[in-house]
């Protein structure tokens, strides 16, 4: 009987492993990783496919990393890193990691879809960076709706973090940010730790608010289809951080209302 129980338990484990393992060479997993094994994807703050090779290198360096090598990209892919955007990687090569074959991405293939070494380094693509110590935060988000948390949430974030989330929804839509939880080191003028919202795709223009403390900020609605969130923590005192949800709003109804109001 004990043996039978053991066998059944073993069957169960095999099934579990199977559900999350490779099936026909494809990682059977419904959640694709946004970063893995120190590799992550970035696009220009101007949008998709805007980086020359030189600019791509600068993006990785700015965050303390460097361009990923083919081997690093493939190692990340093997544990679930899946991105449908071609980017520069080491030595002027361009490609992207595909875990699950699909009709709209990767020509139905699985693997690092490799465009090879580009002769023209002025071509514009995204980039794949490598930084094994990178804090898990930030990224380029194009989903219609998503919950974003400070790194480690609901545990306290660490000192000296900087995260940028570039959010881009469809042209003609707006982005609504709704705060679910907020507790960031309190400080006059929020100069120590803060979350900033920019009504633009970078942190140069359109600062819409800087937040710290434990008051839940009000909802924010963008004027266009892009926003940037910047979270920064200084070298001492941490807190549980924040959680917020952004949603893409169709502004069609809104503009129809506006038209009615116009003379
Ligand atoms: Ca702090």
UniProtKB/TrEMBL annotation:
CDD domains reported in the protein's UniProt record: CUB, Link_domain_TSG_6_like
Domain Link: residue ranges: 38-131
InterPro entries per the UniProt record, alphabetical: C-type_lectin-like/link_sf, CTDL_fold, CUB_dom, Link_dom, Sperma_CUB_dom_sf, Spermadhesin-Link_domain
Entry GO terms, CC: extracellular space
Domain CUB: 137-249
Listed GO biological process terms: cell adhesion; negative regulation of inflammatory response
Keywords: Cell adhesion, Disulfide bond, Hydrolase, Signal
Disulfide partners: 60-129, 84-105
Any GO molecular function: hydrolase activity
PROSITE patterns to which the protein is assigned, alphabetical: CUB, LINK_1, LINK_2
Listed Gene3D superfamilies: Mannose-Binding Protein A, subunit A, Spermadhesin, CUB domain
Oligomer and partners: Interacts (via Link domain) with inter-alpha-inhibitor (I-alpha-I) component bikunin. Interacts with ITIH2/HC2; this interaction is required for transesterification of the HC to hyaluronan. Interacts (via Link and CUB domains) with ITIH1. Chondroitin sulfate may be required for the stability of the complex. Interacts (via Link domain) with various C-X-C and C-C chemokines including PF4, CXCL8, CXCL11, CXCL12, CCL2, CCL7, CCL19, CCL21, and CCL27; this interaction interferes with chemokine binding to glycosaminoglycans.
Protein name: Tumor necrosis factor-inducible gene 6 protein
Species this chain originates from: Scleropages formosus (Asian bonytongue)
Gene of this entry: TNFAIP6
């Amino acid at each position: 009987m004990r043996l039978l129980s053991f066998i059944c338990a073993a069957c169960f484990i095999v099934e579990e492993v199977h559900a999350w393992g490779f099936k026909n060479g494809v990682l059977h997993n419904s959640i694709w990783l946004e970063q893995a094994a120190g590799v992550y994807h970035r696009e220009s703050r101007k949008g998709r496919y805007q980086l020359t090779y030189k600019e791509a290198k600068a993006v990785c360096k700015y965050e303390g990393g460097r361009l990923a090598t083919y081997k690093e990209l493939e190692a990340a892919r093997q544990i679930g890193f899946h991105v449908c955007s071609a980017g520069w990687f080491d030595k002027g090569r361009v490609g992207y990691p595909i875990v699950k074959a699909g009709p709209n991405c990767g020509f139905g293939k699985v693997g690092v879809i490799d465009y090879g070494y580009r002769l023209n380094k002025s071509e514009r693509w995204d980039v794949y960076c490598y930084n094994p110590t990178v804090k898990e935060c930030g990224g380029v988000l194009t989903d219609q709706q998503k919950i974003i948390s400070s790194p480690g949430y609901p545990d306290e974030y660490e000192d000296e973090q900087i995260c940028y989330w570039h959010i881009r929804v469809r042209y003609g839509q707006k982005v609504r940010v709704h705060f679910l939880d907020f507790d960031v080191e309190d400080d006059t003028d929020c100069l120590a730790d803060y979350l900033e919202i920019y009504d633009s795709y970078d942190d140069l223009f359109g600062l819409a608010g800087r937040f710290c403390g434990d008051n839940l900020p009000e909802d924010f609605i963008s004027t266009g289809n892009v926003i940037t969130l910047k979270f920064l923590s200084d070298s001492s005192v941490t807190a549980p951080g924040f959680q917020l949800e952004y949603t893409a709003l169709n502004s069609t109804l809104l503009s129809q209302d506006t038209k009615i109001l116009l003379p």
